[in-house]
Write a structure and sequence with these properties.
The protein is about 80% helix and about 0% strand. It has helices at about 1-30, 35-65, 70-95, 100-125, 130-145, 150-160, 165-200, 205-220, 235-260, 260-270, 270-295, 295-305, 305-330, 340-365, 375-380, 385-395, 395-405. The longest helix has about 35 residues, at about 165-200. The protein is globular and about 55 Å long.
């Protein structure tokens, strides 16, 4: 327990650092700083996805499935090798962007993720390998491995076709799609099934099969939505739209399971935990609806031409669905302690910045004016998120300061 709690603190530390880099990027627009903006963007995104989410998810998987298996030494080797990769990226991306050393550490990180995946699939206890949670988590890991086809192909694409080729962007979008939807969200769903099984909630094989097939097929087909900016034939729109609909059907099955077992779930959760879980479900529904909208040619073109809509959607998914979903599981399984103040600060920063980002997108789309000091408000709103993370990381120290004051 102590080791996994400390590892979760490491992941939250990466999240805090990524959030502070986000503040720096938004402050850059207001008061230019002596940094390379593009290099900091690379650092921000890598540390957020690979430092916060990856470490938090893999720590949860080890804590829930393997901590009693006597595998601590093997797990520690993987964990610390992964930290070397992350620190290497942290020390190279801000100064050189994508170049030799940052690419070396990024490549080593991919190998570390393969190492963890093999470790989990091999050593997860047999009693859990037939569970619905394990099935989802195993496929989530396979999606994570599959997503690395994108980064692996970039070298050849740059050499043969150049960075201006559509294949360069498609490789990046392939990676991001299967990271967000295949690895991160499906892993959260796997953890949710573990939560249901933990509460002794029975789910029929038929119900789970219907959920699983629609969700997996939906994740695969919805990748075509990431190709629509190229103006492909109509079949790509149809396949992408079908993928979005299938994911919505899978979501509906999951919500129906929750509705049937709402009494059991309410009795097992505190009011704060229940509210956070409901919020994650709402955010995921909106995310899926936005995804479905982009299957229509008009909105696909809009998403491709108005950058703020894409940025807003990605932050909605990352800061909303994935990060708040992780907060729920970390709180429920006793790895962090969420306070109402921490949640209030986090939601305040998340909702304020999302509203401002989407407003700027609407302004570009409909010709609305940007109000005075827009950039200052966006930078200021971003500060609420690192403040919330400080409250999560050091709740006792914050309470002590309040008491002494």
């Amino acid at each position: 327990m102590i080791a996994t709690k400390s590892h979760i603190k490491v992941s939250l530390g990466y999240f805090l650092l990524a959030a502070l880099l986000g503040v720096v990027l938004r402050t850059f627009v207001v008061a230019p700083l002596p940094i390379n903006y593009r290099f900091i963007v690379h650092t921000h995104s890598h540390i957020a996805l690979l430092g916060w989410v990856y470490i938090a998810l893999t720590t949860l998987l080890y804590h829930l499935f393997m901590v009693k298996q006597g595998l601590e030494r093997k797990y520690r080797r993987i964990f610390w090798f992964t930290q070397i990769c992350l620190l290497g990226m942290l020390l190279t991306f801000p100064f050189q962007g994508y170049a030799l050393f940052s690419i070396v550490f990024s490549t080593l990180f991919l190998l570390a993720s393969y190492w963890f995946s093999a470790f989990f699939i091999k050593y997860a206890p047999k009693s859990l390998k037939d569970t619905k949670a394990y099935i989802c988590l195993k496929y989530a890991l396979w999606f994570m491995i599959g997503s690395s086809i994108g980064p692996w192909s970039l070298g050849a694409i740059m050499t043969v076709l150049g960075p201006e080729s559509i294949w360069y962007r498609l490789a990046i979008y392939f990676y991001l799609h299967f990271q967000y939807n295949g690895w991160m969200i499906l892993a959260l769903i796997g953890l949710f099934f573990y939560f249901l099984e933990y509460l002794k909630i029975k789910i029929s094989t038929k119900t789970f099969r219907n959920f699983f097939l629609t969700t997996i097929l939906g994740i695969i087909l919805s990748f075509f939505l990431s190709t629509l900016w190229t103006g492909p034939p109509m079949i790509y729109y149809i396949l992408g739209g079908l993928g979005a609909v299938l994911q919505l059907i899978g979501f509906g099955i999951l919500i129906n399971i929750c509705f049937i077992n709402r009494t059991i779930m309410k009795s097992a959760l505190s009011q704060l935990q229940l509210n956070v879980l409901k919020l994650v479900a709402f955010l995921l529904l909106i995310k899926m609806i936005l995804q479905w909208f982009t299957a229509w040619p008009y909105f696909a073109n809009l998403a491709a031409t108005v950058l703020d809509f894409t940025i807003g959607y990605l932050h909605w998914t990352f800061l909303g669905v994935i990060s708040i979903g992780l907060f729920f599981f970390l709180e429920f399984f006793g790895l962090i302690k969420l306070s109402k103040m921490a949640i209030a600060f986090y939601l305040g920063g998340f909702l304020l910045t999302e509203a401002l980002i989407f407003y700027r997108g609407m302004a570009a789309w409909l010709g609305w004016p940007l109000f005075e000091d827009y950039s200052q408000f966006l930078a200021g709103g971003s500060l609420l998120i690192p403040l919330a993370l400080i409250l999560v990381l050091w709740p006792n120290k914050v309470n002590l300061i309040k008491t002494e004051a």
